[in-house]
Specification:
Layout: H1 8-18, H2 22-44, H3 48-56, H4 62-68, H5 77-103, H6 106-111, H7 113-118, H8 126-148, H9 159-186, H10 190-213, H11 225-232, H12 241-263, H13 286-315, H14 327-336, H15 342-374, H16 377-382, H17 388-420, H18 426-456, H19 463-474, H20 485-488, H21 506-529
Helix pairs in contact: 1-8, 2-5, 2-8, 4-10, 4-13, 5-8, 5-9, 5-10, 8-9, 9-10, 9-11, 9-12, 10-11, 11-12, 13-15, 13-17, 15-17, 15-18, 15-19, 17-18, 17-21, 18-19, 18-21
Length: 533
């Protein structure tokens, strides 16, 4: 047994070194978002009367229950903060944990580095064990941070609910890590393993939503770790038995993954990519090759953003309930302009957040192009008569197409959800598409900057995620932190016209588009002048 984990500690240090930037950034993002949510709850629902009003309004709305879960209690501000951020952030941490595990298991094996490590004096299970240890530390640190944010709030110093919050995040993250360990063993590529783990986690989130909104389907909570996380109920039941179920799932999945790892060949798996056609006459151009390689990933972004926007659309007709008797919301509406309504503010804010999320597509594609270059396939293509400029333009075409399509997909899905929920069609559609279209130039600025980073140097590609995070906090979330205007101006989303609340202003859109074009030109020049590989 000891030989199975030989030099696990050394590999833990290796994985931790490779995650030395990702883990701190992840922790900071989770804690900052939770802190902003807690501050908003404290400002809006600081007394018992306002908390009861929330219970009677959004807390009783089926769409809010589907998205956030039921309000377990309104006895304290901390309880409401856990409700507002809880299940969504728990699910996000679960996805992050799964991606981290796959990145240091199946991805390493796929790239050949796993075989190199196995050729040394290391145990066959040392690599997966090291990935699990680092992921567990990530989940624990995030859980501590999420609980610590609640300390200044009313009721936030009670030890048992704080420990329940910790267990809600840490144990669900471990359950997701176990699922990812097993997925990494049965899938032959990291892409399939990531998709399999993400589908299991996100399906659990949706099943939990059905259990919360449909009478007689409450048993669905017991079939998913996200449902178990909900049943912990911090500041409510504080039941730690579901957390134990998450740990049991982790142990079972990790044990099964270890058994599979010891009984399969290196690089083998059950789930394999679908083989391509016997003849590839339709791949006669670099554009067709780029579409073949990256269109499935773009489709996954379309489905993810569209599904979330659809859920938001279901909520849209109920947004007006938030303003009932809420002095803070009334004041916000008064300051926003005469034509503003809470629904208009909601539409613009949600589409702004989804537009920032759409920027992630360009970074994702840049990372995939970087992986193609690292694997030597880009160099092979460039040994043919294919020119560098044509190669770069083909990738840029997909970046631009996705950057334009994703905000419009979000607007379409929001309109569909709003219409199905009884909120109307024509006017909401006009407002949604106007708000989404106004975001596109800002999305193009971030997208072109991400591609420029890759063109300058492949190792800079990961910094594109930093651009996305900065655009989020300096743009749509800047108001939560009361940032000065000069800081907001650093984000292209800080210059986006607030449509439909205010008339369209074309100058900021033209300037952002011109900046995007300049960044694209700089990227083409850098790509043409640097070595490949």
């Amino acid at each position: 047994m000891r030989d199975l984990f030989t030099h696990t500690g050394l590999l833990v240090r290796l994985v931790a070194r490779r995650e030395r930037i990702t883990i701190p950034v992840t922790v900071i993002v989770f804690v900052v978002i939770n802190a902003a949510t807690a501050a908003s709850i404290a400002a809006s629902y600081g007394d018992a009367d306002k908390r009861r009003m929330l219970l009677a309004g959004p807390g009783s709305n089926a769409a809010f229950r589907f998205l956030l879960g039921p309000v377990d209690g309104a006895d304290s501000t901390a309880a409401l903060a856990v409700w507002r951020a809880g299940l969504f952030m728990v699910t996000a941490l679960a996805v992050v944990a799964a991606l981290t595990v796959v990145r240091h298991t199946r991805k390493e094996e796929e790239l050949g580095r796993g075989e190199l490590i196995r050729s040394a004096v290391t145990g066959p299970l040392a690599g997966p064990a090291a990935a699990t240890v680092v992921t567990a530390v990530l989940c624990a640190v995030v859980a501590v941070g999420m609980a610590a944010v609640l300390l200044p709030l009313d009721g936030g110093t009670e030890p048992i609910p704080l420990f329940a919050v910790f267990c809600q995040y840490a144990c669900t993250g471990l359950a997701a890590a176990g699922v990812a360990l097993l997925a990494a063993q049965v899938a032959t590529t990291a892409h399939i393993a990531n998709r399999l783990a993400a589908v299991v986690i996100l399906s659990g989130y949706l099943l939990r939503g059905v259990a919360d909104t449909v009478d007689g389907w409450g048993w669905l909570r017991w079939v998913t770790p996200i449902g178990w996380a909900e049943m912990i109920e911090p500041y409510g039941a504080n039941d730690l038995l579901p957390a134990l179920a998450c740990l049991v799932l982790f142990v079972v999945c990790a044990g099964a993954a270890g058994w599979v790892a010891l009984h399969r060949d290196l690089g083998a798996g059950i789930l394999t990519p679908r083989p391509g056609p016997a003849h590839a006459g339709h791949l006669g151009s670099i554009g067709a090759i780029a579409i073949r390689l990256h269109a499935p990933v773009l489709a996954s972004w379309v489905v993810g953003i569209g599904a979330y926007a659809l859920i938001i659309g279901f909520i849209q007709p109920s947004v007006a309930q938030l303003a009932a008797g809420n002095a803070q919301v009334t004041e916000m509406l008064r300051q926003s302009g005469a034509a503003a309504t809470l629904t208009d503010l909601f539409v613009f804010t949600m589409l702004s957040l989804l537009a920032v999320a759409a920027c992630g597509w360009s970074v994702n594609l840049a990372e995939r192009v970087r992986a193609e270059e690292a694997a030597g396939r880009t160099e092979v293509l460039l040994t043919t008569p294919l020119g560098r400029t044509r190669f770069h333009v083909a990738q840029l075409g997909l970046v631009v197409a996705g950057s334009i399509a994703l905000p419009l997909v979000a607007a379409s899905a929001m309109t569909l959800g709003n219409g199905i929920a009884g909120g109307g069609w024509a006017r909401p559609a006009g407002h949604a598409f106007a708000a989404a279209s106004a975001q596109i130039p800002a999305v193009l600025v971030i997208a072109s900057a991400a591609v420029l980073l890759y063109a300058i140097r492949p190792g800079l590609t990961h910094l594109g995620w930093g651009l996305v995070i900065a655009a989020l906090f300096l743009g749509p979330l800047a108001g939560m932190f009361d940032l000065p205007q000069w800081a907001r101006d650093l984000s292209p989303f800080g210059h986006t016209p607030v449509v439909p609340i205010e008339p369209m202003r074309w100058l900021p859109l033209i300037v952002c588009t011109a900046i995007a074009v300049a960044l694209v030109a700089a990227g083409c020049r850098c790509w043409a002048g640097r070595d490949v590989g």
